[in-house]
Amino acid sequence: MTLRVAAPHSSRRFRLRAGAATPYLFIAPWVIGFVAFTLGPLLFSLYISFFDWPLVGEREFTGVQNYVTILTDDTDFTRSLWVTLKFAAMFVPANLIVALFLAMLLNQDIFASGFFRAAFYVPSIISGVALVTIWSWLLSHEYGVINFMFSLVGIPGVNWLGSPNWAPVSIVLVSLWSVGATMLIFLAGLKGISKELYEAASLSGVGKIRQFFLITLPLLSPVLLFNLVTTVIAAFQQLTLALLLTKGGPVKSTYMLAIYIYDTAFKYRDMGYAAAMSWLMLLLIIALTLAIFKFSSMWVFYETEVKGDKA
Amino acid sequence: MLKNWMPAAVTAAMMMGTAAFADETLRFATWDSNESLEIQKSIAKMFEAAHPGVTVQVESYGDGFDTKLAAGFGAGDAPDVMYMWNFPAYEASLLPLNDFIAGANGLDMTDFAAGLLPYATVTDADGSSRTLGIPAGYTTFVTYYNKDLFDQAGVAYPAEGWTWADLRAAAAKIAKPGEKVYGYGVDGNPDPYDFETYLWSNGSSWISADGKTTTGFLNSAATTEVFQQFVDMVKGGEAVLFGVGDNGSYRELFNADKLGMVISGTWPMPDFDAAGKNYGVVGLPAFGDKPVHSNVGISSLSIAKDTKNPDLAWEFVKFYSSPEAVAMRKNDLPVLNSVATAQGLTGNPKMAPFIAMLPAADANLSPAFLRNPNWGRAQEVVTEAIQQIFIDQDGIQAILDDAAARADKALTK
Fold first, then answer.
1. How far is A250 from chain B (nearest CA, A)?
2. ipTM tops 0.85
3. Nearest CA in chain A to B73
4. Is B189 in CB contact (< 8 Å) with chain A?
5. Taking CB atoms and an 8 Å limit, are A269 and B70 in contact across chains?
């Protein structure tokens, strides 16, 4: 008797334990990958940010010296941060407006809307390098298609990539090519807004433009908040386009913080200093995100809140 | 010629008794790609044939050379032998070659073209010097000119000993701005390393001889004069500015018969030949009666300090500068005088100017990066200043003064 009980008991316990481990086994590849290739390097970069850590040669613990130097005595840092802020000030609104505009066009019941949805998204899956190559041809001062088309209607061409004033604008223009993901999220949000609201508004004689500001924008505001946060983060991390399209030039007009960090790490091989700048950039992004969330209560409107108030 | 060298090389190497290197793999990193890479691979194959059992793994890092090499050293996984030019940046990781050169399996340095070795040597605080690389190929800077455009404009071809005044006069006659034909091409975004050629030829340099300051050099009157001349040429329509916001390169302009003259190294030559251009080569023009100097772009071979097999690595480096290996390099100039003579380069009108431009070893003329290990950061400031000058085309002195102050600060970082 004891034997009969004990045997299944122990085997059940074994089975249970094996069963409990199964989910962890399933997520193990991701967790191991995360720890080995994301969390590990992340913590390691924090560690080396307190060192003078050249790729080649002696490493030396310097405490917070890197951070102090960056914040008090590095004009390249302040300049590249300023370039990044100016870029973000153009990039974020331009991306949000264009993405929302395209999403609203796609949200209409038109012929082949599925085709257009795919067509507008396709540019987002083109790799950044291919995108840059194509646009560097289009934007070429003397031989570019864009300036050629301008010349047909008598507008003098702009030195898109060669003028310090136009180069940042060009990068924003090119970045709009990859607006697809933001657009799709807006589209999903638009689909969630009940048509009845618009019908009711139309019956009450509210025009299309007022409908946009009174219905669409408020009901879309949570989605807008999400897109705003992700776009701001994307603006600060912008590297590929500027690095490949203008190499940070001309005259460092597109020399963004991410390029400066990249150069410090891989050109000047000063890993500790680059890591310290990366952490400052992270803190800055966190601070900005928190600020956006803090002020979001002023303009973000959740439907659930309304329902709660009514009940 | 190659066919003549090959068997002799193989036999000679076999006779040296290299059985000691059996079953070894040697890693060799290069920045070359395309045809140049194929040449490296052939030389490596020849080495393998002469050293049975040895495998040479040729690693092509291309444009990412510096990043990959630095990462390799940082991770303790550097190749045994590598191409090298930036000796001050890597000196701590490279094996000094002085003892190998002077040793039993040594190398006769007297056949090397004069002026190349200082580029591969660093001087230490105690005054002693370390040779960290052996040159494998090089190029100087020369003027390429399109003979067809000269003929059309009725201008005599440039001759050795000419000056910038001669060049500008020819450029003005060749230029037809309405047809977008230009006499000369000014690089608006040059590598400061290459650009120093003009400063030297006008009696200036980027940085002081002791490497401590750029003030009085980067912003000297002689430096300003060089920039002013190029800006005047662009403004006056003699020259076209390239490299500023355009992907159209001087090579395309030259091949399309839109550019009369351009200054470069050996690099565009295969392009011009492939396009069947009717072109000539002449030395650099002088600034008045001042002596002309050209910078030298050198590919040297270095050995990693941590290599497990320094003797085999040295054998490889030595082989690379042997007459038979040097003769195989087609995309730059032979580092050995004997090979240059054997190839008849001094009698070849397209090649002789390159060799004539090779400066005598002169301690007063060493590129900025050899004078200060932090030059890399200062060079960023210089690059920016040059861009600013060619975009503004005005206020040159003020731009250079500001750059000198910032470059000096960068030197102390």
1. 6
2. no
3. A56
4. yes
5. yes
Residues A182-192, mean pLDDT to the nearest whole number: 92
* pTM confidence score: 0.80
Of the candidates A162, A252, A269, the beta carbon closest to that of B246 is on A162
Identity of the amino acid at B67: T
Size of interface A-B (CB pairs under 8 A): 69
Q: Which residue of B has its CA nearest to A137?
A: B247
- For the residues of B85-112, what is the DSSP string, one character each? S-HHHHGGGB---HHHHHSTT---GGGB
DSSP B363: T
Please tell me whether residue B242 adopts helix, strand or coil conformation: strand
Buried b (16+ CB within 10 A) or exposed e, B31-47: bbeeebeebbbbbbebb
Q: B165 Cβ partners below 8 Å, 6+ apart?
A: B288
Give CA angle at B350 (B345, B351), nearest 5°. 35
What is the length of chain A?
311
One DSSP character per residue, A4-65 reads: HHHHHHHHHHHHHHHHHHHHHHHHHHHHHHHIIIIIHHHHHHHHHTTEE-BSSS--EE-TTH
Strands in B81-84's sheet, in edge-to-edge order, are B54-60, B24-30, B81-84, B297-303, B134-139
Q: Is B137 helix (H, G, I), strand (E, B) or coil?
A: strand
Residue B333's SS3 state is strand
Residues of B in contact with A162 (CB under 8 A): 244-246, 391
C-beta separation of A141 from B188 below 8 A = no
Residue A251 to residue B377, Cβ atoms within 8 A: no
Mutation choice for B interface testing from A48, A268, A270, A273 by most B CBs within 10 A: A268
Say if the Cβ atoms of B92 and A56 lie within 8 Å: yes
- 3-state SS assignment for residue B26: strand
Q: C-alpha distances in angstroms, B47 versus B12, B13, B22, B42, B58?
A: 11, 8, 13, 9, 12
Distance from CA of A266 to the nearest CA of B (A): 6
- Give the mean pLDDT of B350-376: 80
B384/A159 CB distance under 8 A: no
pLDDT tens digits for A80-109? Answer: 999 999 999 999 999 999 999 999 988 888
Pairing of β B24-30 and β B81-84:
parallel
Q: What is the distance between the alpha carbons of residues A160 and B40, in angstroms, rounded to a whole number? A: 40
**CB A272, CB A62: distance < 8 Å:** yes
- Whole-angstrom distance, CA of residue B319 vs CA of residue B49: 12
Task: Please give the helix or strand (H or E) that residue B23 lies within, else none.
Answer: none
> Alpha helix locations (H) across B175-256?
192-201, 221-235, 250-255
pLDDT digits (tens, 9 = 90+) for B142-182: 999 999 999 999 999 999 999 999 999 999 999 998 888 99
Helices A257-266 and A271-296, axial angle in degrees (round to 10): 160
Buried-exposed string A271-296: b where 16+ CB fall within 10 A, e elsewhere:
bbbbbbbbbbbeeebeebeeeeeeeb
